[in-house]
Amino acid sequence: MTRSADSSRVPRISPDPDRPEDLLASIVALSEQTSRLALDSALEAAQADALGKVTVVVEHVCRLAVGAGVACGEIAWLAGELLSAGGGADQRAHAAVAITGAQSSLLAVAFAIQDVADAGGPREVRSAAEALQRAALQLEDLLAVLGPIADRDRARAGLA
């Protein structure tokens, strides 16, 4: 297995919660890393599948599911800290764009993994696809909170 699929590549980020710009930078960085992890893992799993290495496929998708779940939890925590720190509408909107990108990557990979499961893949592959979908839904809940707040702040500022 290459390092690109290793969930330990997504480092724990410890920003200063009193500085919204640091929180935003952390959200963007972690969202981008999560997207890269998902896409790299999916490519490696597809290569292993093409070679008939079912065990390697299972390993990749299970690690991805765990890593994505942890990353989405951290993104949610960072977004909550951004809200608590009084991040402005532009910062919230920027965070929402980054989070939407990570969510899109996770959903695309989850659907691809689901296709492998539907084609007779092991039960663990189906479970990993479901876990990725749940992680993406966790981000959807977060976007539902960020969006209305950013929209409200824009309206107050006369920008909407």
Polypeptide structure, described:
With 160 residues, this protein is an all-alpha fold. The chain has a single domain (18-155), classed as Four Helix Bundle (Hemerythrin (Met), subunit A). It contains 4 helices and no strands. The longest helix is centred in the last third of the chain and has 34 residues, at 123-156. The protein is elongated, with a radius of gyration of 17 Å. The relative contact order is 0.16.
Brief summary:
With 160 residues, this protein is an all-alpha fold. It is built from four helices and no strands.
Tally of DSSP β-strands: 0
Largest sheet: none
Helix content: over 70%
CATH topology: Four Helix Bundle (Hemerythrin (Met), subunit A)
Query: Which word captures the global form?
Result: elongated
Radius of gyration: 17 Å
Structural class: mainly alpha
The CATH level-2 architecture is identified as Up-down Bundle
The number of distinct structural domains comes to 1
Name of the top-level CATH class: Mainly Alpha
Number of helical runs? Answer: 4
**What is the arithmetic mean of pLDDT?**
83
> What distance separates the N and C termini?
48 Å
What fraction of residues sit in β-strands? under 5%
Query: Could you name the ranges where pLDDT drops below 50 across 5 or more consecutive residues?
Result: 1-8
> What is the chain-wise order of helices and strands?
HHHH
SSE blueprint:
Elements: H1 20-50, H2 54-84, H3 89-118, H4 123-156
Features:
160 residues; mainly alpha; Four Helix Bundle (Hemerythrin (Met), subunit A); 4 helices; elongated
